[in-house]
Amino acid sequence: MELTVVTILVAFAGVFLIAFMRGAFGGGFAIIGIPLLSLVMDPVTAGGLLAPLFIAMDLYALRYWKPSTWSKPDLVVLVPALVIGIGCGYLLFRVLDHRAIAIMMAIITLAFVALWLLRGADVTTQPRSTPKAIAAGFTSGITTMVAHSGGPPLAMYLLPLGLSKAIYAGTTSMFFTVGNAIKAVPWLLIVKPTENVWILMGICLFAIPPGIWVGWRLHGALDQRQIYRACYGLLTVTAMKLLWDGVSGYLV
Question: In this entry, which stretches build a coiled coil (predicted)?
Fold first, then answer.
């Protein structure tokens, strides 16, 4: 990867956008910023660039999403399943059909959003389910390892619980703090970043504090209903991006 001014500016903007999502919604929407990075580098290089930066985002985000914002009963079930999912995702990374996984995840996510709209597009409350939590954590682990798209499975479990906006964001943030720390090493082993990639990482670190802070300010300005509607809207955008990635991969 050639380190040009355009590459630096686009990568910086992409990392800022991802950090903004982390500050506003707790994480899970990294794929929203990946299209920007794909303008100047291939997706695998982008994955290697982002893996350590995710950890930096997570550590900085702990200033805002403290333990009081974590839903510990959910994390106790979600996190072990996440760890197993990441392990399976790493083992299957080279043999999985990424296009088929992207299409399947997109269709499931769009169906989930459609059901929410049919119910009246409002904050719903459903009881916790251990099997659903295990399935969400495991699926999120696989998809976050394969495509940095672990947000939809987690959101499909957490959003129907009707958690407060702070608890939802804090729980999501902590979930991906664990996941990103675990998957960083496998991603770096797969990608083996070059010197230019490491330099670009160092530059992009400066995008993280302002990105998270601006996102956190937006979170504070929105009420519960607006946050949930924004999350469902972002899920739709994420699903459409996954669908495009999968379908276009077959067309090439």
Answer: none
